[in-house]
Amino acid sequence: MTFEPAESSSLPVPYMARTRAYYRALGYERDYVWATHAGVPFSPLSKSVSKLKLALVTTANPLSWEEGQPKSVWSGTTSQPPVALNTDDLAWDKDNTHTNDVETFLPIRALQGLVAAGELGSLSERYYGLPSEYSQHKTLNQDVPALQSLLVEDAVDAVMLVPL
Prior knowledge:
Structural class: alpha/beta
Distance between the termini: 26 Å
């Protein structure tokens, strides 16, 4: 099988317009309001990467999650990385890729290798799951504070977000 790009492949994908049309087709009357955060709390690292304690956050779900079940912040142990996570309900290109290799979106073993090589200080004892929701209100007022509480409890220095 060969890949032949369309002639229009040099044009940008009208993602915003396509997303609006998609939601209208689903019956939503109001357009989705894209999140903006002028005051995002990013800051310079407080120490070198070789001394950092890093936390890993994914938007995948635990295998025990069942569709229709409410989503919430969750965590697992990095000492026993999962062999799989539930990704079926999330939006990703299921025609051209897969999520059979959990390391592609939850690179625990790769980060453990960096720790062993002395390039990364440590990996937090837990990795964390942050629900992929379309509700900015729930994300900002429920999920982020719950995740932040776990990160403070685990005394991490930095966070790597790996959305699916």
